[in-house]
């Protein structure tokens, strides 16, 4: 091998070795710098595990339903001649809301009434003749039958005329009018919705394990998105059958609604109180790290140098109320945990506690939590 080629290989090896050696030296220095650099202190807010008194409750969601409600319509068809209501107003049972054209029917009624009067006159004449023994009993009975048929025909025609007047079947509030003057309506065509609004039902479901905790007459509180306050009521009906598909049963409660603020179809949050208040451990919900493998908190402690640090601990949680959540296992009253800034934390992270932007700890915030 030529001597010049060997010298070139040696020179290339020396250069590459120097480059890789310098790179390894720089990497080692960078690693040493980051290893020796102190971990940054995370700023968090803290909350103390405290004892609170909670009344055992069952919570559910439901729907408001009218005690009585119907889409009103006419029994017969015809031309609309009178509309006697204003949309959105309250009406009493029996109030006439709409009339269809009855001109032809009333003319026919006059004819039928005349025929009925004639039948009555012939019946009276036949009875007089019978007393004089100038007519048979069978002829009198035939005249009685004709008179009864004539009166029945008059009554049927009067009923047909009444069917062309739409009346409110119960007290309630009217909805939007669906017809206009002069319009032809057929039997079954919607005219207007009528619903009673005071009182009002709320229908909701519970799982079968709650069946032994519910009874008729039990008090409930209902909240709706439209208003911040709650509405009181009581359970009036419990479905006797548990649905096999969902293993749940339906309940119905009755609410007073004198101001007509609640309307059928609204989404309702139902709360049923069970027994006396119990002492429970609570924390703000923001203090919990929710994971598929288990919920945890970061407990704050002080190391030997007086530095505040956190250590992750798994806990068991229970029901939630407002901003708070119940702790059933894993913590004791008086312990402090991180209530915000959890994404910055891991085991042994140094922390600094601030009171700024501290999460709310209201058990009944207004408006309520979704």
What's the total count of β strands? 23
Helix/strand/pairing category: alpha+beta
Low-confidence stretches: none
**Strand arrangement in the largest pleated sheet:** 3-12-15-14-13-16
Biggest beta sheet attributes: 6 strands, antiparallel, barrel
Helicity, as a percent range? 10-25%
Residue fraction in strands: 25-35%
* Separate helix tally: 3
- Shape annotation: elongated
The pLDDT mean sits at 86
In sequence order, what are the helices and strands, one letter per element? Answer: HEEEEEEEHHEEEEEEEEEEEEEEEE
Distance between the termini: 84 Å
Radius of gyration: 42 Å
Explain what this protein looks like in three dimensions.
The protein is an alpha+beta fold and 370 residues long. It has three helices and 23 strands. Helix 2 packs antiparallel against helix 3. The chain is elongated, with a radius of gyration of 42 Å. 18% of the residues are buried.
What's the structural blueprint in terms of helices and strands?
Elements: H1 3-36, E1 42-48, E2 50-54, E3 57-66, E4 69-72, E5 78-83, E6 90-91, E7 96-100, H2 103-131, H3 137-162, E8 165-167, E9 172-174, E10 184-185, E11 192-195, E12 200-207, E13 219-224, E14 231-238, E15 248-255, E16 267-273, E17 278-284, E18 296-302, E19 308-314, E20 316-321, E21 324-329, E22 336-340, E23 351-353
Parallel strand pairs: 1-23
Antiparallel strand pairs: 1-22, 2-17, 3-12, 3-16, 4-11, 5-7, 5-10, 6-9, 7-8, 9-11, 12-15, 13-14, 13-16, 14-15, 17-21, 18-19, 20-21
Helix pairs in contact: 2-3
């Amino acid at each position: 091998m030529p001597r010049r080629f060997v010298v070139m290989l040696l020179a290339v090896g020396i250069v590459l070795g120097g480059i890789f050696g310098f790179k390894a030296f720089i990497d080692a220095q960078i690693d040493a710098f980051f290893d020796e650099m102190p971990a940054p202190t995370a700023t968090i807010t803290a909350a103390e595990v405290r004892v609170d008194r909670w009344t055992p409750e069952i919570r559910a969601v439901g729907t408001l339903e009218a005690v009585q409600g119907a889409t009103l319509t006419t029994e017969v068809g015809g031309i609309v001649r009178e509309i006697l209501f204003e949309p959105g107003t309250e009406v009493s049972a029996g109030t006439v809301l709409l009339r269809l054209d009855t001109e032809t029917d009333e003319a026919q009624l006059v004819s039928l009434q005349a025929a009925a009067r004639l039948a009555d006159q012939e019946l009276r004449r036949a009875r007089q003749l019978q007393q004089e023994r100038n007519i048979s009993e069978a002829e009198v009975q035939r005249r009685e039958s004709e008179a009864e048929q004539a009166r029945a025909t008059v009554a049927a025609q009067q009923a047909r005329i009444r069917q062309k007047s739409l009346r409110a079947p119960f007290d309630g509030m009217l909805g939007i009018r669906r017809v206009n003057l002069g319009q032809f309506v057929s039997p079954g065509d919607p005219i207007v919705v009528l619903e009673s609004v005071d009182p009002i039902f709320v229908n909701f479901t519970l799982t079968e394990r709650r069946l032994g905790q519910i009874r008729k007459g039990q008090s409930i509180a209902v909240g709706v998105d439209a208003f911040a306050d709650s509405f009181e009521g009581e359970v009036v009906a419990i479905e006797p059958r548990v649905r096999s598909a969902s293993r749940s049963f339906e309940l119905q409660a009755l609410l007073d609604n004198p101001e007509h603020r609640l309307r059928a179809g609204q989404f309702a949050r139902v709360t049923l109180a069970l027994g006396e208040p119990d002492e429970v451990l609570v924390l703000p919900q923001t203090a919990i790290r929710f994971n598929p493998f288990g919920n945890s908190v970061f407990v704050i402690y002080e190391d030997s140098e007086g530095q505040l640090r956190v250590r992750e601990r798994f806990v068991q949680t229970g029901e939630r109320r407002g901003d708070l959540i119940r702790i059933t296992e894993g913590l004791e009253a008086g312990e402090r945990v991180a209530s915000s800034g959890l994404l910055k934390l891991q085991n042994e992270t140094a922390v600094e506690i601030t009171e700024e932007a501290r999460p709310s700890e209201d058990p009944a915030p207004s408006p309520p939590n979704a």
